[in-house]
User: Fold this.
Amino acid sequence: MRPILRDVRTRGRDTHQRRSAPAQGPARRLLRPLVGLLAIVALVAACGDDPDAAVVDAFAEDPDCFGIELVELEEDEVRCGTVTVPLHHDDPDGETITLAVATLLDEDASDEPVLVLGGGPGEVVVENALSEPMIQQAYALEGREVILLDQRGVGSSDPELSCDAFDDQDLTEPSDPDEERDRLLSCREELVDRGVDLEAFDHVHNARDVDLVRRALGHDQVVLRGGSYGSHLALHAAALAPDGFAALVLSSPVDPTQNYLETMAGGFESALDRLNEGCGQDEQCAEQLGDIHEVIAEVTDRLTDRPEEVTAEPLMGGEPITRIFTGEVFLGSVFAAFYAADGAFALVGMLAAAQEGDLEPLAGLVATIEEGLDDIPRGMYTSMVCSGEGASYDAEVAAAGLTSPLLEERWFDQAGIGGRHTTELCELWDVEPTFDPAQLELATEIPTLLVTGEVDHVTPPVLGQQLHDQLTNSHLVAARSLAHGPLEGLDALVAGCGSTIITAFLDDPDREPNTICANQIPPLDALGMFLP
Assistant:
């Protein structure tokens, strides 16, 4: 879930120029550079109330894997292709679009495969996983194949909804209201000119796609794994077709029956409060850094009076990025730091450096995070949000979660979608509201693993607790000290810990999974060890 998204450049390929128009049925699909055969066709008998019942769910194999260069994967270890679904599910005989899928094969697999649902909305899953061995390793589970899905409007799915208007805007860049309006209108015009029907890109269509993918691939059941918005999608899909899903594994869980947009401003402040509390309980942190809120205010005021140009390389290497740090950019950078699962540990040292006048460490972390977010298509993100939670968003309710005037005036009021101007921006995007969170009834009996992060700023841990209270067959793992993406963070910080917890849960969903490995993550009252 990324409410204040800035940079939407695609990675590796200029996909929105390659796909100049949406799919127009079978004739349009022949124009794709697809050399595959029809590998699986599942014919579903018509059955009255199911509008998808007359649809032929088709998986078409793509031996070229969408032109993606496989890294540390052999060709016989992955099967790529597309699943054809209706553009509008209530018109199954009308236009179709294609969803990109890739299966990481395991000849010894005997259990239900795991279907990965990306966050965002708009996270590119297929290309990122096939080209990043660390992601492959994080998803791998012994005895199970892994299905990677690019949701409608994303990545190698067709059409893909990125646009030129946001290509030069960074995650931490404050949103000038007039410029933001102009960008949105320009993006919308570009997509409409390409023939994209923006009304077809909403939570409901996205959720109905998930079960069609399962059926097209010929699986009786799959396990859904979703992080952040992916958990929203998994719960929604399970509510619509509960018999198709054996279990749910949710990291940074979001309750789709609540308007999550209205909780995120308070989530940021709560994460800072918890960080400050932990620092105050650690002698070294309390002595060296003091009150974190005061440090943030001090640096914000300094940069407001004297903005600084900072050049920094992404932490994993890459081209240096130069930006002007104003007070607002600094606050946006602090917010962005919590997108790293271990952001709390990094942030205390970076705030100490910023207080001394050195912004390069924080700039390097933010550059790394932005590099990971820059392939999210803004058109898909905006359509999903504005046809859903954005349509009922109340800025006053969202702002009520903030007690800090600094955060409200210098961050929330400057934000795009997810901030003060959400309603106005969604009205400019002009899509019909199609999803009312209050009308969705969750499938409460599906075995569900919920993993929350103690300082998750976007999906605060209270959301996971609320879900746990609703779901009658769920297990809640509260990962201490971690921020957004705690399940993935456990895997990265304690080798294989996240995967161990998932495996224990799936092996016996009726028992609390063994989470002892998570205790290797230091508590927040030991933050001093991360200070120079």
